[in-house]
Design goal:
It is a single chain. The two termini are 53 Å apart. This protein is mainly alpha-helical. The chain has 27 helices and eight strands. The protein has a six-stranded parallel sheet with strand order 1-2-5-6-7-8. Strands 3-4 form a two-stranded antiparallel ribbon.
Length: 607
Amino acid sequence: MRALAERSADASPHRVDEPYRRALHGIHARLDATRVVLSGKGKQADGVQPYAAAVELLADLDVVQHSLVSNGLRALARGRLRQLRRAVKVFGFSLAPLDLRQNSDVHERVVGELFAGAQPGLVYLDLDEEQRISLLLAELESPRLLTSPYAHYSEETTSELDIFRAVREAHVKYGKESVPNCIISKAASVSDLLEVALLLKEVGLLRQDSREVDVNIIPLFETIDDLRAGPAIMARAFGLPFYRGLLASRADQQEVMLGYSDSNKDGGFLTSGWELYKAEIELVTVFKQYQIKLRLFHGRGGSVGRGGGPSYEAILAQPAGAVQGQIRLTEQGEVITAKYANPEVGRRNLEVLVAATIQSTLLPQAQLQPKASAGAGHLAAMEELSGTALNAYRDLVYGTEGFEQYFWESTVIAEIAALNIGSRPASRKKSTSIEDLRAIPWVLSWAQCRLMLPGWFGFGSAVQAYLAAHPADGADVLRGMYTDWPFFTSLLSNMDMVLAKSDIAIAGKYAELVKDKALRDAIFTRIRAEYAATLDALKLITGQEELQQANPLMQRSIRNRFPYIDPLNHVQVELLKRFREGKQDAAARTGIHLSINGIAAGLRNSG
């Protein structure tokens, strides 16, 4: 403490016996010098050294704190000083950390162009996976750079390299915590991870000689196939000495992001949930084998169709070992306002997350899994249910001729695409195909017409098929899964909430917007039959006579909202009819957009 005071520029003889004041004066001077450097505004005082990183400021504040405590002034240390130290820990000099996120296809094209420029005749995109891994590893081990200041690159490649260079600049200026992560969307191979490593090397964020990397390379497994392949991909990556060396520089910790939205759009609600659960189990096993710390990043949206639902139950529904003292998840859309706009409510929600994380980490592993006596049977039953549900969902969405037309005409997807909300366009490409559609507008469209199809379709068919195959004990097995298995309990609880917000009669009004009557009748009849089957299945398993019977507060909340939401649906249908018949004036467009906002606000977790 005395040394800190002596380093201060405050040399006034009147404060020679005031070490705390002098020390804080010095800290303030260095902090102001740091502000000048980071903002580029103002003039830096002579002889004052700015802080190179927030950790240096925290170290000085810690000196003051320890001195106060050791001198019996704990009350002072736990006041404003404690709040300041906490703020420095949380915000640093960058306020909030940013993540990079880009599709693996873009990384692939950029790396392909860099190789083509450095090795004419080499067509990277024509190489198979093993050839790509060999080539990438050889280049990562080499001290040379593929980029040249004299070469001309495409707009895409130039943009991507500029982004990575901006990250390096941010690290130098604000500290490495300012941009700590690089997420690879649609990760489907080991080469996807190594391509990002190569791009980081090109801009100085990875040193091949020491195998140090300044950001976490995080694969995002999104589709059903990617979730199934994810554990094997990570095992192969961990087996590569170079990649293992990179992890050593990141405290032997690897983060893996799981995509709830696209896996749901790809395989339906039931299969998405089951494949996510299985992927987590296998990832836990792989990481344990290679002695790597696992942090799962759950890419959940606000709606059940995008992984939403009560956070506490969702965390406790994770398989044993998936929550290892930490968990990362996304909060999106209107959920942010609902949970965190009010400080007291926000604190309560954070307490819920922390409590669930601690409980899931410390609970005996057996409490997070199906009971041992019936565990194998429950897992087998879930596999059987998932297979049937997947076939039913994909047969409707991807195997039914005209479904794409039905979707675009019976929902507000076209109008949502014109809304000035969100950070990205509704589709990844300029097309109307379901495959190219992003998950948020997909889910929001079904919510607007009150079908909520991504949150339940396929479950009724799955249960019917299971009961037919197991007439003697099928119902008892399903009831046992609901009673004893947190994963299955959470799954059905979320489905219960979705169905409670659905309205098949109102959905029928939207179906009338489809011009082709034969197409409309064929598809909506199938949807209505599956809806009825799902309701029957849910009530059979849970023992409820009506939806949300076990949650009367939620039941009352939803019912109180219907008198406001239902009229908006009818107004929206009428406005859509007029708009699509050519009455496309500004008032009609505004009315449609207002109805979308109103229905979304009433349903809450809608997108």
